[in-house]
Amino acid sequence: MIDFHTHCYPDDLAVKALGAVHDVCAERSDGTYKGLKAALAEAGTDKAVVLPVCGRPDHEKTVNEFLRRLSENDGSLIPFVSVHPFSHNATALVREYAVQGAKGIKFHTPLQNFRLDDERALALYETAAKCGMIVVFHCGRPGIYPSSSDCYPSHFKPLLGVLDPEKTVLAHMGGYGINEEELEVLRTLPFYVDTSLSETQFTLGEFSLLLDSLDENKILFGSDSPWRMPNKAVEFLRSACRDKRKLKKILCENAERLLDIR
Ligand SMILES: [Zn+2]
After folding, report:
1. C-alpha–C-alpha distance, residues 88 and 61, integer Å
2. Do 91 and 127 touch, CB atoms closer than 8 A?
3. Which domains does the chain have, with CATH numbers?
4. Coil, helix or strand for 138?
5. Ligand 1: distance of its center to the CA of 7 in Å?
6. pTM above 0.90?
7. Residues, CB-to-ion distance under 5 Å, ligand 1
8. 5, 30, 82, 171 — which has fewest CB within 10 A?
């Protein structure tokens, strides 16, 4: 089982990191490496993609180095990288990370405070695609409050020529706080989605119907630990998806193929 959407922070920054995202969910782990490992073990997870966010330009080294070091001693973690679109030499940095073996890059428009279609960001999507990197986008609200840079499936339509559909993931089922209209758009897009935050934005019935309406080869299980508990997320998915074969794809096979780790 692979959790495609997790985070973890250095022990001395975890409290601050958790406080930066306002959310209503009280039940969560502490944001540290230890906390993540315990939460993943409780859910029965074998591997986890860990997603960093470089919130300010030119802070990549600190943010990405922490996860790279962790993964050196823990083969169950698959660290992605984060590059701020406004950093100096941002495209060169993306290429450098790809050469170093990074499997993917995460973008977070509200926390990194840029527009999805900003020219500087487009250059990074193109570079990542050329390097064969997976590109994960945070979609929807950053927490309970919306922000002016939130993006939903319709925002990705103009980027169809730029993004590689086989390597692009829209997190949170296309957007935390997504509405019916945007879900309709999501169903027409060729991208992957991750299931993180579903248990707090859909009823079981809604989630089940949504899973049925999307390409089963492009759904990835994700928990968004530490903001949600992986065991609860997986329980919700298992209840919504009664088809064992499809569940195996969502929990494991789709991620294995995308990450090329079979
Ligand atoms: Zn997240």
Report:
1. 12
2. yes
3. 2-259 (3.20.20.140)
4. coil
5. 7
6. yes
7. 224
8. 30
